[in-house]
Amino acid sequence: MRNKLNASGYALNTVIYAVCIILALLSILPFWVMIMNATRGTFEIQQHALSLLPSTHLADNIAVLKGKSFNAMTGFLNSMIISSGTAVCAVYFSSLTAYGLVAYDWRLRQPFFTFIMAILMIPAQVVTIGFYQFMYRIHMTNNFLPLILPAIAGPAMVFFMRQYLLATLQLDVVNSARIDGAGEFYTFNRIILPIMKPAIATQAIFAFVGSWNSLFTPMVLLNDKSKYTMPIMVSQLRGDIYKKEYGSIYLGLTLTVLPIFVVYFLLSKYIIAGVALGSIKE
Amino acid sequence: MKRILSVLLVVMMLATVAFTGCGKATTTDQAASTAAAPAESSAPAAEASSAAAEPAQAPAVTDDPSIKVLNLWSFTDEVPKMIDKYKAAHPDFPYEVKTTIIATTDGAYQPALDQALAAGGADAPDIYTAEAAFVLKYTQGDAYKYAAAYKDLGIDVDNALKAAEIAPYVSDIGTNPDGNLIGLAYQATGGAYIYRRSIAKAVWGTDDPAVIKDKVGPGWDKFFAAAAELKAKGYGIVSGDGDIWHSIENSSEKGWIVDGKLYLDPKREEFLDLSKKLKDGGFHNDTQDWQDAWYADMKGAGKQQIFGFFGPAWLINYVMAGNSGGTKPGEGTYGDWAICEPTVGFSWGGTWILGNKDTKLKKTVGDIINWITLDTSDTGLSYMWANGTFSIPEGKTVGTKDTVASGTVMKKSDGKLDFLGNQNMFDVFVPAGASATGKNKTQYDESINTIWRDQVRQYTAGKKSRDQAIADFKQQVADNLGIAVD
Amino acid sequence: MRRKSVSYAKYGYIFSIPFVLAYLVFSLYPTIYTTIIGFTDLKGLTKTDWKFLSDPFQNFEQILKNPSFITSTKNTAIIWIINFIPQILLALLLTAWFTSSRRHIKGQGAFKVILYMPNIITAATVAILFNALFGYPTGPANDIIQSLGLSKDPIYFLNEKWTAKLIVSFIQCWQWYGYTMLILISGVLGINPELFEAAEMDGASGSKAFFKITIPSLRPIMLYMLVTSLIGGLNMFDIPKLFVMNSGPDNATLTASVFIYNQAFSGSYMYNRAAAASMILFVVIAILSGILFYSMRDRSAAKLRKEEKRRIKAYNESNKMAARRAEI
Fold first, then answer.
1. CB neighbourhood size of B263 (10 A)
2. Which of A126, A224, B25, C19 is placed for a possible disulfide with A142 were both Cys, Cβ 3.0 to 4.6 Å?
3. Closest Cα partner for A3 from C205, B69, B368?
4. 8 A C-beta contact, residue B70 and residue B93
5. Which has the closest alpha carbon to A212: C119, B290, C54?
6. Is the link from the previous residue into B218 a cis peptide, with omega within 30 of 0?
7. CB B117 within 8 A of CB B153
């Protein structure tokens, strides 16, 4: 084996594993504490907020959650619709736009890219004021569309996809497809998208998670209980300032995180395997 | 390329102007139409009320029969539950109640409510609520114009206020700059000093409120004398500086803004010194209100045992009882508490109820508000609220009791609590309401209090001088709120 | 550059239509609205009519002279720098380890998945957890410090300016290094493996291959990282807002975004000033990003652009060929 490591190489490997394990523990700890606290009573939590061992109050916490009109199923479905919609819109249309920017030579290409870069830099905070007012005016409150459709125009993701395509796309592939008589949309959907899988998987996760966790915009736009997302419901729990039922708050937070875990682990195989970019690199 | 870019920019600019031109036009159109609508609808109301002034005839208000939904906005489920109760008591209640609850914790309630009020239309709230911390904005500040005068909702305000003996500060806060009552709270939130009986016995040999009230007050000098005595036996007198702050804030003569300028009331300024004294003497556990360590002190789990807290009745029922570490006498600190007159009189908190001036359901909105705030009968909300019959938890004979704004109701109610060793809390809380005032509030209180208390903490922690803390406080208020300072 | 051939240029426009439409519908109005009210007297909640100020830059002047705004920009810069430098270094290091062809780290898939996890937890949860961790007067961090004898009295972490800043930076770093790492790894995966094989053939060491091949090839992605992190950093809002209650001790963690939010929502509804502050922030971001672009472009981006041009040329050539072939 040519790749055999020498002694110092093994030493370094040990260091690498040690660092990774410490970092992994730092990552897991909050989730662990959160899940443990979901089984603990409010008094226990106030006494010692962090505990590595479960307790016996899970049933009580579930009862409190139910009593507080925390409807996990509704929240889960709503969040799922919004977040998947956002993720799909974001990755598909950003890839499309990026491909348009990379693969075609059109007159407004450079100005358009400059334009995207410019809007990428606009700070989000106050633009939201105008956004809410606009949505109220056109009666789009209590509607998921204003939470999903803006993702189509995600300058940051277009930027990323463009950078990615610049580094990976080989136009021969496109050309050979054309020679085979494939239309441009067909080429994009069937050939380019698969090439972009690793980038799409990571960006889809980011988009999904970002949308799943966002609180302020949905909170202001969704006033109908049946349209609440999971984070809004948790924030209702926290909002009862007279009496904080910490156990049930943690339970709510845990329920909120679980679906993301599922989606994340489903998509993570793309990140990990790296999906051999075989389609272009024979 | 550059030329194309500049052409594009010019086009965009033009589009911009055209676009906003349109946007602006529609805004003003809408504003004009919404402005016109109340003008029409208020004309008959004005006639009605002027008619009411001459003969004793209540102004007739009605619901628009085409409306099927009543929108309710609140920040906890307290008021929504009241309306559920109202519905249950009125089987013929024809409307579907659409409830929107947005917690105040993440700062979204006010922006969302503001947008909903400004946008109007079918989704606009018919009834909405505001907490003491920001109620002024909705009754006297920027947003007061959205609220309907109670009299336009068919409530005979003057007589009802008198009959219910509503605490004057409650109606002061709810009266708009035009002199009309637009909001009332159902609670009275006059405060008391809530102390541990066992510690009182250990230090002074008695837990009698009549004795303890002379130990902790009146006035801060006596309070600190008591603090020293307690300290000598290893007890803290309060949990943190927040405890004295609420009584100082709400007992000061004037609010943060006087004549459009920032004003530092001498009592509020004194908070710097009192807070420093507390910290330097080790008289408290240096906790912050609403933080875990503060709750922990309610069951005596802090660094040193804490003698007491300043607060109104709701603090006992909604905060301390739940955090006492027990649910019946003998468990945790449950039952080991008593209340007496506070060092300085104050009030703290409360929820005000308002109706939208554009509501199509004037009669129903008026009826509900009347039932919650002004109805003094045994089936009115106030009576049930005061006597713990509003919602009785499983396995108990009585629910949480609270002081209510109506003096009439308080007189016929019983405030005995096993949490307080069967002391009748109304004996202390009802007179306490007299020292409550609505004159020292502004719509900026929440923001300014945050800045002020932060600077006080900087000073008490020895991070900066007293003068510097005041100067920085003024600077930050000017920076963040655009309020003139000296 | 004009030549006769089947033109695919129109697809450039077609593929951009969804983006442009969505932008026009959902972002243009709010953006323009914000730009314009920066020059007006729009202040106060219920105000619906507004007029342009006689001195159009009055709001901008007031913001630039506002001591809290100056503090907030300084804080933002400091917090961003102390979070970004360790973050990118850690991410690069992990990327080097995980993508090394000779150092097959076992379980790296699991590590990647786990290290990214802090990013999927909401700011609200993070705020609660860290508040508990650094609780005062009792809390795990204080327990540890006191049991190790580092300090006799409990430390009020969130009342100390620097510890508050450091904790916020730490949270940001902890939440985002996994993200940065994943982006970098996906960038490395996009590099042509032949390059590494060639390097290995030449006997280049792992670290040499990393510096000679990986880092230069990552430049476009690194530029993306830098720019988006900078923008994200300047927009930093959730953690400072939820964790340290708005502005932290004595404004120690007041970020530019929180400042803007306060201008608009903390009681005075100074939409005009908030808008002006946003515009100023926008200009700052634009300048900084411009500098970044310029400095990154120096060596590689210019080369990349050349490469891109060459590609397009080849591409057009082949288009021609394809067209011709189609004709035949």
1. 18
2. A224
3. C205
4. no
5. C119
6. yes
7. no
Distance CA C260, CA C275 (A): 8
Contact between C189 and A277 under an 8 Å Cβ cutoff? The reply is yes
CA dist., res. C269 & res. C42, Å (int): 9
Say whether the ipTM exceeds 0.85: no
**Residue B470: half-sphere exposure toward Cβ, Cα within 13 Å:** 15
Report residue B141 as tokens.
């500040």
Measured CA to CA in angstroms, residue B390 lies from B167, B351, B383, B403, B418 at distances of: 21, 17, 8, 13, 18
Please, what is the end-to-end C-alpha distance for chain B in angstroms? 55
Q: List residues bridging with B131 in a β-sheet.
A: B351
- Phi then psi for B190, rounded to 5 degrees? -60, 145
Chains sharing 3 or more CB pairs under 8 A with chain A: B, C
Residues A271, A268: Cα–Cα separation, whole Å:
5
Judging contacts by C-beta atoms under 8 Å, the chain C residues touching residue B454 are 247, 249-250
**Cα–Cα distance, B433 to C235 (Å, whole number):** 46
Q: Dmax of chain A from CA atoms?
A: 71
Does residue B113 contact residue A141 with C-beta atoms inside 8 Å? no
Tokens 């970098």 sit on residue: C184
Cα dihedral value B149, B151, B154, B157, nearest 10: 130
| Strands across the sheet containing B183-185 | B96-101, B69-74, B127-131, B351-355, B183-185
Residues 72-111 of B with CB under 8 A from C: 106-107, 110-111
Interface of A with C in 83-122 (CB under 8 A): 93-94, 96-97, 99-101, 103-109, 112, 116-122
Interface residue A69 vs chain C (CB under 8 A)? no
Bridge partners of residue B196, in order along the sequence = B337
Tell me whether residue B398 is exposed, middle or buried, using C-beta atoms within 10 angstroms of its C-beta: 0 to 12, 13 to 18, 19 or more. Answer: middle
- Report the residue count for chain C: 328
Q: Which two tokens stand for residue C187?
A: 């960038």
CA-nearest of A86, A78, A106 to A149 is A86
Flag if C273 and B482 touch (Cβ within 8 Å). Answer: yes
**H helix runs in chain A, sequence order:** 7-37, 42-47, 58-67, 72-103, 109-120, 124-137, 145-148, 155-168, 171-179, 184-187, 193-195, 197-213, 216-221, 230-239, 246-273
Question: How far is it, in rounded angstroms, from Cα C251 to Cα C67?
Answer: 11
Q: Which of residues 301-340 of B touch C (CB under 8 A)?
A: 302-303
B116 contacts in chain A (CB < 8 Å):
136, 141, 223
CA dihedral C313, C314, C315, C316 (to 10 degrees): 50
pLDDT in tens, A81-107: 999 999 999 999 999 999 999 888 888
What tokens were used for C62?
Answer: 């007031």
What is the pTM for the complete model shown? 0.82
What residue type is assigned to position C89 of the chain?
L
Nearest Cα neighbor of C262 from A156, B62, B447, B159 is B447
Q: Are B166 and B334 contacting, i.e. CB atoms less than 8 angstroms apart?
A: no
Could you write out the DSSP letters of every residue in B12-67?
HHHHHHHHHHHHHHHHHHHHHHHHHHHHHHHHHHHHHHHHHHSSS-PPP--B-TT-
What is the pLDDT tens value at each position of chain C, 328 positions in all? 444 456 788 888 999 999 999 998 888 888 888 888 889 888 876 666 778 888 888 999 999 999 999 999 999 999 999 999 999 999 999 988 888 767 777 787 788 888 888 887 777 778 777 877 787 877 778 888 888 888 888 888 888 889 999 999 999 999 999 888 888 887 787 777 777 778 777 777 777 878 887 888 787 778 878 888 888 888 787 788 777 666 778 888 898 888 988 888 777 788 889 889 988 988 888 888 888 877 776 455 556 556 656 655 665 666 566 555 555 4
